[in-house]
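== Sequence entry ==
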Amino acid sequence: MSKKKDLTFAEARARLDEILAEVEHEDGDVDQLAARVREAAELIRFCRDRLSAARAQVTQVVAELSAVEQSVAQDAEADAGRAGATDEQEENVESDEDEAPEGLPF
């Protein structure tokens, strides 16, 4: 299996299916059986490595998305806090304008 690096997961899986069919339907020679089992073991290792790498990539992407989502939520909270503070400040200014300054007759 010298071209293992060029092999895709789908191709490896298909070859495993072929080997299984050959072993199930063939009364073949023990030497061929041993060679097929050896190839199947290599293909299984290859597929496990690919699955493990894909799992790690998916985990990383999900973690990155989660961090972005958390950052967006924090930004939204901060924006809401700033907007609330601005509204309170505007209300205070309006209520101060309604009151007459102390010591003045109006």
Notes: The chain has a mean pLDDT of 81. The chain is about 80% helix and 0% strand. The radius of gyration is 35 Å. Helices lie at 9-25, 30-98.
